[in-house]
Amino acid sequence: MLPKPYYQDDAVTIYHADCREILPKLTNVDLIPTSPPYNCRKSYPSGDEWNWSEYYLWMLEVLNGCYSSMRDGGVLALNVPGVIRWQADHTYADSWTTYDSNYHTHRNGKQVIGKGRVEPLGFKLYLMMQEIDFHIREPIIWVKGSNGNAIASDYKMGCDSDPYMRPVHEFISQLSPQYMFTAIPTTPSILPSLQYMGVSKCH
Ligand SMILES: C[S@@+](CC[C@H](N)C(=O)[O-])C[C@H]1O[C@@H](n2cnc3c(N)ncnc32)[C@H](O)[C@@H]1O
Predict the structure, then answer these.
(1) Which of 19, 44, 66 to mutate to test the pocket of ligand 1 (most atoms within 8 A of CB)?
(2) Ligand 1 site-directed mutation target among 46, 50, 59, 62, most atoms within 8 Å of CB
(3) Pick from 68, 159, 150, 142: which is nearest to 106 by CA?
(4) DSSP 117-172
(5) What angle do CA 96, 53, 164 make, to 5 degrees?
(6) Which residues contact 135 (CB under 8 A, 6 or more apart)?
(7) 162 pairs with which residues across the strands?
(8) Measured by CB atoms within 10 angstroms of the end CB, which terminus of the chain is less buried, N or C?
(9) Whether the Cβ atoms of residue 25 and residue 65 lie closer than 8 Å to each other
């Protein structure tokens, strides 16, 4: 049973709850716009500092909930960056994909120990969503703006041995729970198992 709405009028009903509890109780949803935590130490009440395996398991539960609540051809508009990096203080920095504790470099004039803690967050979520059976549609590009620069102005280009940039855009991925054009045969899965992300599939 759905909980008591946080707000309700003739046009809208709003619930304030953990999406993992609400989503399985909804059906025939047309559109889910969402911007999930990126596991990068923001001060959300829900927390934002997990081991990557825990994070992907949590996102798998959220994405499965989205999938099961949507109508055919509905759209999940998921806002995620392709790659995130430089979380030297993250408790689980060791679980970042390219972590190297022996590497020294600089960021914004300060020395940072440990090589670019690069996690291809959005790209891994794309793999996960394809394995869940979402149909991946063209993304919307959200241009966040940075005084006309193509690279966020507070990020430098790293150094020769470790170039990096922070773009001023993010994807708003668009996904549908079923293939829209059933006349086109679907290709067999060439995806690595979700084990690759250290998680097991929920359904
Ligand atoms: C990247 S922020 C998005 C912020 C939002 N787009 C806005 O502009 O206010 C992620 C949000 O997801 C919320 N959140 C985290 N876990 C959640 C969950 N299980 N169910 C619902 N919301 C959750 C966090 O509290 C945070 O507000």
Answers:
(1) 44
(2) 46
(3) 159
(4) --B-HHHHHHHHHHHHTPEEEEEEEEE---TT-SB-TT---EETTEE---BSEEEE
(5) 25
(6) 175, 176, 177, 178, 179, 180
(7) 159
(8) N
(9) no
Residues facing residue 171 across a β-bridge: 80, 141
What mean pLDDT value characterizes the chain?
A: 80
CATH class of 15-193: alpha beta
What's the angle, vertex CA 97, arms to CA 95 and CA 99, rounded to 5?
75
Q: Could you tell me the CA-to-CA distances from 180 to 23, 29, 135, 136 in Å, in that order?
A: 22, 16, 8, 11
Domain residue spans of the chain: 15-193
Strand, coil or helix: 76: strand
pLDDT in tens, 122-142: 999 999 998 888 998 899 998
pTM score, two decimals?
0.82
- Give the C-alpha separation, 103 to 96, whole Å: 14
How many residues can be counted in the chain? 203
Q: Using the 8-state DSSP alphabet, how is residue 74 labeled?
A: E
Residue type, 67: Y
